[in-house]
Amino acid sequence: MKHLIHTLNKAFDNRVRLGVMAVLMANESVSFNELKEALDLTDGNLASHVAALEKAGYVTVSKQFIGKKPNTTYAASVEGKSAFQEHLSTLEKLLRG
Amino acid sequence: MKHLIHTLNKAFDNRVRLGVMAVLMANESVSFNELKEALDLTDGNLASHVAALEKAGYVTVSKQFIGKKPNTTYAASVEGKSAFQEHLSTLEKLLRG
């Protein structure tokens, strides 16, 4: 049986990805700027990681107008929530040794 | 106050590094091959990550001969153990949300 580290999900194998998913698990939907401020990130850093999570199907993106201003919000998808839960329990097993 | 993800230790921000430290925290000293087998890694992959942990001062390397054969063993340093404990508690705080 392969070592536990191989069961960890590569999509979450980075502090920014962990941070984004932790925020999205705790909130129904979050705007780009709220995510950026909550995690103290640059636009570019956050955008690249959120795009990767979206590509993996773990985050959904909705674009709407608030008044005349475009607004982008993110939410963890059903697959994202279950994959992240699995990642967390593997991490806990690994770290308990 | 900066978000928790910035308190995570970059030296451990990767599944292989987590795996190496988890094994070294549970064992006094471990040979390269034991680490490689325990974590199902290639020589190159393990060597690069162990070298980075050594450079960070978190892992100590001892080289000795067993009979005529050279043997390299690794151990978590005192700084490595305390830095890894801190990383784990930050990870737990982050994941508890």
TrEMBL record, chains A, B:
Highest taxon of source: Bacteria
Q: Which Pfam families match?
A: HTH_34
Q: Which InterPro entries match?
A: ArsR-like_HTH, WH-like_DNA-bd_sf, WH_DNA-bd_dom, WH_DNA-bd_sf
Q: Which residues form the signal peptide?
A: none
Domain (Winged helix DNA-binding) spans: 16-95
What GO terms describe the biological role, i.e. biological process, of this protein? regulation of DNA-templated transcription
Q: Which SUPFAM superfamilies match?
A: Winged helix' DNA-binding domain (SSF46785)
Protein name, per record: Transcriptional regulator
Q: What is the lineage of its organism?
A: Bacteria, Pseudomonadati, Bacteroidota, Cytophagia, Cytophagales
